[in-house]
Amino acid sequence: MDPMDPMNPINPINPMNNVGTDPPMEERFAPRARPKRSPRYGGRPTAITSLATYVPPRVLTNADLEKLVETTDAWILQRTGIRERHIVDPGVAASDLAKEAALKAIERAGLTPDDIGFIVVGTVTPDMMFPSTACLLQHKIGAHRAWGFDLSAACSGFTYALTTASQIVASGAHDHALVVGADVMTSIIDYQDRATCVIFGDGAGACVVSAAPADEGAILDYEHEIDGSGGAALCMPAGGSLHPPSQETIDRRLHYVKQDGQTVFKFAVRKTEEISRRIMERNGLTPDDIDLFVSHQANRRIIQSASEKLGIDPDKVIINIERFGNTTAATIPLALNDAVCSGRLKKGDLVLLASVGAGFTVGSVLVRWGF
What is the DSSP code (8-state) at residue 52? Predict the structure, then answer.
């Protein structure tokens, strides 16, 4: 196998020699116990009442990458399904992308920033360690009555944030919450490593979650899990409390994304299918009942393999990774927006969202589309 293939494992990710006691792979990723069969949601109905996205105007094509690393357009397209990705200019942060998407989402919901009571930002590329990007975003959009926080779940950031906001609104604590998935992945990508630099792009998506009558669409159910035993397979090794920035971590390029591509690929396919099947079974649904399947856009082959295993009609699967790459927490809102704009997602449709991210994090949300 080609050692430079991003789907092949790179050297084991143990940059500071502090890992080595993990159980065998088949034990680490063993199937979980079956969940409860009743939907998890309680309280008043909630719905996604608006959606907006933003990507920076600058585009990095596969041809551009050919000038940076040893790769080709055909090689990237075959292995990932990506042709181009949007990237920020220097000095543009996650909160800047989030602001553009958030303001549009709030306007489309017929609200003002002061109507927002809660903000949750899914991101692994915050502007800084602290304050949170949610704090910076609250100030930038003028949401003077809101509180909130960042949620770090990598590529599951949007599904986790959507569930969190929905539960807050369902409880009656607030009538309107702002959910944002925003990442500037190019800030943590090593452009000397073709196994990762060809995959990622920058972008943001936002939606407003509001209390709403059930007949106007609803967030129906969710299923999430984490598996920390796979943490070393996809991570940014340095910069935290375990390995603070130092000359050594810089010299060893440990402030960039590292991944064991083969492990991530296999886990993502299996868990995307498993988490989606769980939520469908709990709600008495079959693949034929799903109008649109929106998976995290990490790799075209992952999405196709998982949806085939689920038995979902390919015409019901949205794939737009070709134009955006993997924007981490922004991929699902970007895919939803494309589906709305193309007429593939309409009011009343039953939508299944699914994600797998570093951690590992796994998530699925079932939504009746309301607009």
Answer: E
299, 320, 326, 337: which one is catalytic?
326
For 46-215, CATH gives 3.40.47.10
- Give the residue range(s) of CATH 3.40.47.10 domains in the chain: 46-215, 219-368
What's the whole-model pTM score?
A: 0.90
- The answer to whether residues 221 and 365 touch, using CB atoms and an 8 Å cutoff, is yes
State yes or no: is 135 an active-site residue: no
What is the maximum span of the chain, computed from C-alpha positions, in angstroms? Answer: 58
Does residue 310 surpass a pLDDT of 60?
Answer: yes
pLDDT of 25 higher than 50: no
**What number does CATH give the domain 219-368?**
3.40.47.10
* Residue 78: closest CA among 324, 301, 317, 335: 301
Q: Which residue among the candidates 135, 155, 207, 235 is catalytic per the annotation?
A: 155
d(CA 232, CA 259): 8
Q: Clarify whether 283 is annotated catalytic.
A: no
Between the alpha carbon of residue 157 and those of residues 133, 150, 240, 361, the distances in Å are: 13, 9, 19, 9
Catalytic residue among 86, 176, 224, 296: 296
Residue for token digits 């509001």?
Answer: 210
How do residues 276-293 score in pLDDT, each as one tens digit? 999 999 999 999 999 999
- 144 is a catalytic site residue: no
